[in-house]
DNA sequence: GCGATTGAACAACAGTGATGTGCGAAACTC
DNA sequence: GAGTTTCGCACATCACTGTTGTTCAATCGC
């Protein structure tokens, strides 16, 4: 685990912590801790005060992109590989924001497909490709995440029809369907789903036990879910298969 | 001058050149030349054949972004500084593609302004800013340049009204007005100009003696031109002042 | 006012990217 | 089809960038 993540979690759990304590915890010098706190403050993770920092992470929100990106990389790569395999050459794909979808973007780099990514991270991953037809949606990038939102994003999606939507959500269950932490994100995802013929959700197992604030779409609007480990109840039922969703384990 | 640029110019001037000749010219090893030719071929600058490469640069087109970016940096910085000074806090700005406008983007990073850049390079320069309200237009990024074009870009621009448009064109003269090398680009620039109350052209002196293929707008549609050196005729007339354009020398 | 904290400057260090060399494989020439 | 040239991969080397730690003067809070 990176030191940045370690600090962010320690501060979140304690509410607030001093520089000296964090230095002792991580084994780094106080100067390094100060520099780390500076970048975390710039990301909005915490707030500096003289001698330490207090957490700004709310329970309902998710940790910022930079801290999630190198987390669970194996599972994400495996999920992304399966998703990329489900996409045929020549298809047009709308690709959601999030770290799992970013891995999918990387795998599509040398494929002959048309892609509209909903985050600038994926746009950058694909902008050097000569085989991908890249379409950038408009919108306001959310800080850190760089997910494009707002009326311009919705208008871009509504103007087009895609073969496949790859959605990476914050929560998924048979009961509550797809959910997201951010309201703006939720409406972008909803619009993306509506403009695609086929919908694939790329979801690591931790999301299957979680429900986030904003409702995106019912589970029945998904055609397939790709995940790394299926969560089943006592009867061996994942709840999704019954809703007509093909569940693929990577 | 970078070796890449040196190679690209040598091949352009000779039409085609061998690897050994380029190695002798640049003083680098043949292996290095091969690697360079590979990246230039990927950029569409030239075409490899066994033993050498031939130029693909047409007279009517401009050299790719990567080769222009570290060229004339001083003049671009000075022009950009003046342009940034003409923009007031709180303004909304549409920022054209090109290397000069990218410098403007960098100077706007810590300002309180709303910016819609027309190239992904400038988007990336601004996406880490917390003070800038960043708006991304939709569109298809042109390879290398990463300028956003096409119907999505036009729609994004038409949906908004800006205080100021900063335009970096390929050619400018009192007689032919603003001109651009690319037809798609030209219509994006034209739309940007139409959706802004005030139009500033950021143009280094080399563009003032050049006219490109596609007409963008007459010189009279500009409010100000910022350049590094004014070109005047025998009577000391730059031709633009007479058209009601304020010419500022950086 | 005093002590703790901070941020800037400098040095050491590791990680990354660029370059050159050697060699086997592929391609072109005759 | 044989010989020669060219190519690209693998590895070693090198410079450079970014990270970390140390020191010290300035600053902040009590």
From TrEMBL, chains A, B:
Keyword Transcription regulation: yes
Gene3D superfamilies to which the protein is assigned, alphabetical: 3.40.50.1360, Winged helix-like DNA-binding domain superfamily/Winged helix DNA-binding domain
Keywords tagged on the record: DNA-binding, Transcription, Transcription regulation
GO molecular function term, any single one: DNA-binding transcription factor activity
HTH deoR-type domain boundaries: 1-55
Stated name of the protein: Transcriptional regulator, DeoR family
């Amino acid at each position: 685990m990176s030191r940045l993540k370690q600090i962010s979690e320690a501060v979140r759990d304690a509410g607030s912590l001093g520089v000296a304590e964090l230095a002792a915890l991580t084994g780094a010098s106080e100067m390094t801790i100060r520099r780390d706190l500076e970048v975390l403050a710039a990301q909005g993770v915490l707030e500096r005060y003289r001698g330490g920092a207090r957490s700004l992470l709310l329970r309902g929100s998710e940790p910022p992109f930079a801290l999630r990106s190198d987390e669970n990389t194996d599972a994400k790569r495996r999920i992304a590989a399966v998703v990329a395999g489900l996409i045929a050459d020549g298809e047009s794909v709308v690709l959601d924001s999030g770290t799992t979808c970013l891995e999918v973007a990387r795998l599509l780099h040398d494929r002959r497909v048309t892609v509209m990514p909903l985050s600038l991270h994926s746009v950058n991953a694909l902008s050097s490709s000569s085989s991908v037809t890249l379409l950038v949606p408009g919108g306001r990038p959310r800080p850190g995440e760089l997910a494009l939102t707002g009326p311009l994003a919705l208008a871009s999606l509504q103007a087009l029809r895609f073969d496949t939507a790859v959605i990476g959500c914050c929560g998924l269950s048979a009961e509550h369907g797809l959910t997201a932490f951010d309201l703006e994100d939720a409406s972008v995802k909803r619009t993306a789903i509506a403009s695609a013929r086929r919908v694939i959700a790329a979801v690591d197992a931790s999301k299957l036990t979680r429900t986030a604030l904003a409702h995106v779409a019912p589970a029945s609007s998904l055609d397939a879910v790709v995940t790394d480990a299926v969560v089943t109840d006592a009867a061996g039922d994942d709840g999704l298969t019954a809703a007509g969703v093909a569940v693929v384990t990577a």
